[in-house]
Design brief:
The protein has 126 residues and is of the alpha/beta class. The chain is built from four helices and seven strands; from the N terminus they run E-E-E-H-E-E-H-E-H-E-H. The protein has a five-stranded mixed sheet. A hairpin with a 4-residue loop joins strand 1 and strand 2. Helix 1 runs parallel beside helix 2. It is globular and about 45 Å long.
Length: 126
């Protein structure tokens, strides 16, 4: 699997450098999710700008990532190609997974979610 990982202060960005997210890539992607989480990242942005095709195993891998990072942090997809977005929509994963147009918007959504959690946990204090 070809990809790049860029760790930021509040999140990690994984850019998938594959045209297909299918049975040949999905198991490695799931393993990478676990590795990134084990290394301490609570939030993950997946940039899918290069991915032109996905199948059910690829969608399943994205669900695994959403489950892993959604518990304590955030999982965001960005720059999803039209064909992949159609499949995400058909499978109704767009109702479950946070999807943003750009990597910058994905980063902003993580920052806003973290601020919301902080304000929510401090909401009772005056």
């Amino acid at each position: 699997m070809n990809y790049t990982v860029n760790k930021k202060e509040n999140y990690t960005i994984l850019v998938l450098e594959e045209e297909k997210l299918d049975t040949t890539v999905a198991p490695d992607l799931k393993s990478e999710f676990i590795k990134i989480q084990t290394e301490g990242s609570k939030s993950l942005i997946i940039n899918l700008s290069k991915v032109k095709y996905t199948d059910s195993s690829g969608l399943s891998a994205l669900l695994v990532g959403n489950r892993l990072f959604g518990e304590e942090g955030n999982f965001v997809l960005c720059e999803v190609q039209e064909h992949v977005m159609k499949l995400i929509g058909i499978s109704q994963l767009d109702k479950v997974i946070n999807i943003q147009s750009t990597q910058e918007e994905a980063a902003d959504s993580i920052v806003m979610a973290e601020l919301g959690k902080e304000l929510g946990s401090n909401g009772g204090e005056a």
